[in-house]
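Let's sit down with a protein and look at its sequence and fold side by side. Which protein we use is up to you, so please pick one and set it down. Label the sequence line and the structure token line clearly, so we can match residues to local backbone shapes. Go ahead whenever you are ready, and we will take it from there:

***
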Amino acid sequence: MNQQDSDATDTADAADAADAKTRITILVALAANIVIAVAKAIGGLLSGSPALLSEAAHSVADSTNEVFLLTALRRSRRPADRRHPFGYGKERYFWSLLAAVGIFVMGGCFSFYQGYHALVADDGEKPSGYAVGLAVLAVALVAEGSSLLRALHQLRKQKDSAKDPAVRTVVAEDSTAVLGVLLAMTGMVLHLITGEVAWEAGASFGIGLLLVYVAYRLGAEARVQLVGESVDPELRGRIASLLDAQPEIDNVAQLLTMRLGMDSALIAARIDLVPGLDSEDIELICVRIKRSVVETWPEADHVFLDITEAPPEGGT
């Protein structure tokens, strides 16, 4: 096995290990959300609390989204084939986009409906059964907090996890869930104290706004990746420096980059070679330069060099 194959194997092993930890994080969040969703739904139906029902919808949305994220992990690691020569890395971002849509539709819209329904259907009766509802929310707060701590622990241990849309989605969901539970508890307590359902309706609207905001942020991040985002400026600069340092390259006319997945990137460069090189030398030089780029940055697994005599121009 040559050095390039060895580096590729090491990169794949590291990616598999990272995915295994991410899968555990998602499964922990999924288990917590399923149990919490059932408990919130039962408590909400028994008490008639709109805020608690909004939180039940929130947990159902989160549970569905975790299934999307598990699908993303499995499908994004499929090897490249004839129809998809650059692999399936962007599946990760597609399923994250669906998760954002799920948060908006199932969580945000239902929360707005519950807040509106509470105001319209208010009959002035004193709320009952709220002790059970508050107990359910207290348990949910502990469970959601534990899931959030697990996701944050992975972020601290694995710096690359910050770039993983699956991990970011879990962190966003769990953070929102903790805030949502606190809003629901506040609304229920104020409803009990004042007898005004407007407090609880306001909590439902607040949960809805929170979910819509999180859905927008996650969707915007997924959109950028799906459209095609360049590698980070620091990496691009280092690749450009490596190309400029090659004695056979007279000028790098243009350097284009695009992320294809978590650990895959496309590098395309238009280069002007020094005069006097024959065709056989040019072929060997291009092979050596490509190998240097891949050996230095294994994630740059698709490197293309275009020999040109074009004058220098800006590229991204």
Remarks:
- DSSP finds eight helices and three strands in the chain.
- The CA atoms of residues 169 and 218 lie 7 Å apart.
